[in-house]
Amino acid sequence: MATVFKKTQMLTDTPFHYCPGCTHGIAHRLVAEAIEEMGFQNNVIGIAPVGCAVFAYNYFNCDMIEAAHGRASAVATGVKRVNPQNIVFAYQGDGDLASIGMAEIVHAAARGEKITVIFINNAIYGMTGGQMAPTTLEGQKSTTCVYGRDSLLNGNPIKVCELLATLDGPAYIERVALSDASSVRKAKKAVKKAFEYQRQGKGFTLVEMLSSCPTNWKMTPDKALEYVKNDMQKIFPLGVFKEVE
Amino acid sequence: MAATKIKKELCKGCGLCVTACPKKILRISEESNDNGYFVVENFNPEECIGCANCAVMCPDCVIEVER
Q1: What CATH number is attached to the domain comprising B48?
Q2: Where residue B1 falls among pLDDT bands split at 50, 70, 90?
Q3: CB contact at 8 A, A60 and A41
Q4: Domain annotation for chain A: domains and CATH numbers
């Protein structure tokens, strides 16, 4: 019998600290598998964010740098400019990227920095205990909007892919979901495409992954993925938002 | 003939593999690991088709699949 699925060598043996059912583990694996399959093992530098994925440097079997909160894309910019031959990726959550790091991501995209950003959107601040994030859906409950997000009081969710797609710098922007096995397989293709665009030096690339947070959404892992599929995808439609030839 | 290898000490019992399995041959067992999680088990290995959906959905890379 041949092995059809095995843990990739690009992930270390350290067990993930994430909660049961958290899709961060799937996202980590997709990025790691894409790196391995494309043969970038000895040529890749990752930037870890602040948030639940703050310990990402323990899990990826490549050189990693821990950035200050929200600054992963700024650090990635510096790394890529000094080492243009390397593949550089920043792994950021929604609180990190869409709130405190909004300036860094918008300007990195506008400058067309040749980096890949993996954006994990779970519509909540996970690590700090489930506060409202810029991406929290209208009506969704969190510890800082206990009756559900009210657009009159709290504003509307920010759609990062649509926002960045209006700029000239990005070469490839796609939103995928990690809600079931076929979506996860599609997500890996998107990550590989983003890395390929970076290798060709086409410009800024970003893959947004709709993820779940069963703990802070107060759902079972299963129900949380259904929520991603049925509710999140209405507000955050999947698809390619920018692709240059 | 296909087979799943489950690293029980890493399993967190989230059950995403149970939903992903098209043959419905995975379940959360009554056995717990050192972390106190009830781990997943394949109760009908003969039925496994080796599609690897369980492994693709596992957030903790617990499952290896052979076919």
Answers
A1: 3.30.70.20
A2: confident
A3: no
A4: 24-243 (3.40.50.970)
| pLDDT tens digits, one per residue of A22-59 | 999 999 999 999 999 999 999 999 999 999 999 999 99
- Of B44, A7, A190, A210, nearest in space to B21 by CA: B44
Is B65 an 8 Å CB contact of chain A?
A: yes
Centre a 10 Å sphere on the Cβ of residue A81 and count the other Cβ atoms it contains. Answer: 12
pTM of the model: 0.96
pLDDT tens string A132-182 = 999 999 999 999 999 999 999 999 999 999 999 999 999 999 999 999 999
> Distance (Å, rounded) from C-alpha A237 to C-alpha B4?
34
Q: Say how many C-beta atoms besides its own lie within 10 A of residue A146's C-beta.
A: 8
Q: Which domain holds residue B52?
A: 3-66
* Number of domains forming the structure of chain B: 1
Q: Strands A239-243 and B3-6: what pairing? A: unpaired
Residues in chain B with CB shorter than 8 Å from the CB of A177 are: none
A5, A25, A222 member nearest B59 (Cβ)? A25
Structure-token pair, residue A242: 């920018």
For residue B36, the chain A residues in CB contact (below 8 A) are none
